[in-house]
Amino acid sequence: MDREELGEALGTLNDSIFFIVVIIGSILLSWLALLYQRQQLRDQIEGTRCAENAPIFPLRLGASALVIAALLYFFRLGLHRREEACQGDDPVEKRSSWLNTVASVLVLAASLLRLEDLLFVESSRQPALLETDDQPPV
Q1: Please, is 60 exposed, middle or buried when counting C-beta atoms within 10 Å of its C-beta (0-12, 13-18, 19+)?
Q2: What pLDDT digit, counting tens, does each position of 3-27 carry?
Q3: What is the distance between the alpha carbons of residues 123 and 60, in angstroms, rounded to a whole number?
Q4: What CA–CA distances, in Å, run from 73 to 53, 67, 76, 130, 136?
Q5: Cut 0.85: pTM above it
Q6: I need a labelling partner for 5 at 20 to 30 A (CA). Which of 14, 100, 118, 124 fits?
């Protein structure tokens, strides 16, 4: 490897470290949301009510956004690896890069589906803004 390739590899590793930290941030937001939910359940069991419920939806939405951003980065990285493998003659690298690309697609799709579900459930809890009396609720 020449100096330029080493510099690119170092940049990729630095970016990967950053996006792993983003994923850790997502996990911390999810953890905080769970702590709030646990406290709300304890309050219900004990019959006490907090003056205001903690904003769990924004925490979950933020966690989803962070993880999707990181997964998009790793998906792009996998596609780049796949392109490079297809230009070479190594069948092991070609198969490995193909499997990793498929895995990245599946993980990203799962995260997008979870985000869609989160948004759907939240919107189902909110009254429709444009709903009129002659339209049945959805």
Answers
A1: buried
A2: 999 999 999 999 999 999 999 999 9
A3: 14
A4: 34, 10, 5, 37, 42
A5: no
A6: 100
